[in-house]
Each structure stands twice: as C-alpha cells, then as structure tokens.
C-alpha cells in the first residue's frame, strides 16, 4: 500500500468518525445538537492537530522519538500560571476575566518562557539541544513543585477551581476561545510552511544539517517557538495531555514508514484526530461519561511508552 493510499484511508476514517460523532443519537434536534457538538468537534480537531504537529517537529529537532514537548516544562508552567492567579487574586479573578484574555495571557507567558529558555541555549556556541532539555526539565520540576506548594495553602473551595484545570477534559472544552485558537493554529501553520523543507535534513542530525548548508541554530530556534505556540494553544483549550503526542507520532512512524515530514505530520494529525474523536465516542456511548478520554489516552500512552523503552533497551 502506498503512502498516499494510507493517508487517504486515514482521512476517510477520520471523516466517518466525525460524521458519526455529529449525527449519532441526534433524535432530530439539529438546532441544538449541531452547534453543541460542532464546537466540541472543532476543539478536538484543533487539539489533535496541534499536539501531533508539535510532537513530530519536536522529536525531529531533538532526534529522539520518545520525547514530547512537555519535557521542557510548558504544561507545568500553564498550571503554575493558573495557580498563581487563584493564589494571588482569588478564584473570582478567573471568573471575572474574559476567556480570550486568559487564553492570550497563558499563551503569551508560555511563549515568553520558551523564548527565554531558547535565549539561554543559543547565547553561547557549543551548547546542544540536550542542554535545553535538561534546563527545561529542571524548570518543569520547579514549576510543578511551586504549584503544589501554593495549592496546599489556598482555600479548599478555590483549590477545586484549580483542580478542574489540572486534567484535560473534552467534556468541558473552553469553546469561547475557539476562534482565537483557530486563528493561532492557522497563522502558525503559515509561518511553519517556510521551514517545512528543512525538517527532512534536520532529522539527519546537526552535523549533517550544517554540512548541507542549513543555518541549524536559527531554524531550530524558530521550530521550538512553533512548538511552544501549538502546545500552549492545545493546553489552553482542553488542559495538559501527556502521552497523546508520543502515541500518535510513533504510530505514524510505524504505519507510514517514511522520512518525509510533510506526510508524517499529515498522518500523525489524522491519527490524532481518529484517536480523539473515536475515543470521545467510546467515552460518551459505551462508558456513558463514567470515565474521561484523557485517562484512557494517558493509560494507553503510558503502556506504549514503557514498550518503547523496553524496545530501545533491547536494541542496545
């Protein structure tokens, strides 16, 4: 089966699942069902695409297929920002502030943090990408510890407000920011298109990329900013999801068996959409909301992560 046929099959499966998601058990109440499910479906499409897109790019520039962008602490920073707002101003600050303003502030701070992190990496020559990962891991642990400390000091009722934001939920999607999130993903995609041609070469490693005439540091810096924006948007929409990117990116590598990133990104995005829409259908129709999709994804992703570690260990 050719790669185009595989991608076409994934696209058809994604469309079928999306149609089922919109129409199953509608009961003819289209005026109510279509807008409600439509917003949720758009949010799932945006989240799935952003996570798959950013993970494939991040794994290419780090040259490691078991890493996800969450290792540089962006998820932990998001939770720290939410905790600080409740800790300093109280939970009423979150309710009084518009959803769009919350989204802009969260994305802005996460991108600013990414820029500072990258400035530390590229300020001196001779530092490789693993220096960035180490610093990001330390900051992520620090942010997580600081959040836990402040959560223990706040009022229990206000802690419940923070707790709602600690776990990804596709049943309580922040639909008020759909338009601004859609615009963010679209503009980021346009910006990324200029550098898409370099990813196939970056996958060969820094030395080969430099020898082939690519400005490695500049391209990696721009790609990391793209990753930070996409992760910020997906986290602000539904909350942090740890293992989805790892899962769909590695399934795309195995299923498509190609090095071309244009096809890998398209395939990973479609697999991510299939996993989220199909998973949400199972949660709603089979489990009747007795569990959440993020729990299922993190369980399957965690098992798959252990499998990848054992597989890599055997290869040594």
From TrEMBL:
One of its GO terms (biological process) is siderophore-iron import into cell. CDD domains: TM_ABC_iron-siderophores_like. It is a multi-pass membrane protein. Pfam families: FecCD. Keywords: Cell membrane, Ion transport, Iron, Iron transport, Membrane, Transmembrane, Transmembrane helix, Transport. The keyword Cell membrane applies. One of its GO terms (molecular function) is transmembrane transporter activity. Gene3D superfamilies: ABC transporter involved in vitamin B12 uptake, BtuC (1.10.3470.10). It comes from the Bacteria. InterPro entries: ABC_BtuC-like (IPR037294), ABC_transptr_permease_BtuC (IPR000522). It is found in: Cell membrane. GO terms for cellular component: plasma membrane. Its main location: membrane. The chain crosses the membrane at residues 6-29, 41-61, 76-96, 103-122, 128-149, 170-193, 223-252, 264-283, 289-310. Belongs to the binding-protein-dependent transport system permease family. FecCD subfamily. This is Iron chelate uptake ABC transporter family permease subunit. It comes from Paenibacillus woosongensis.
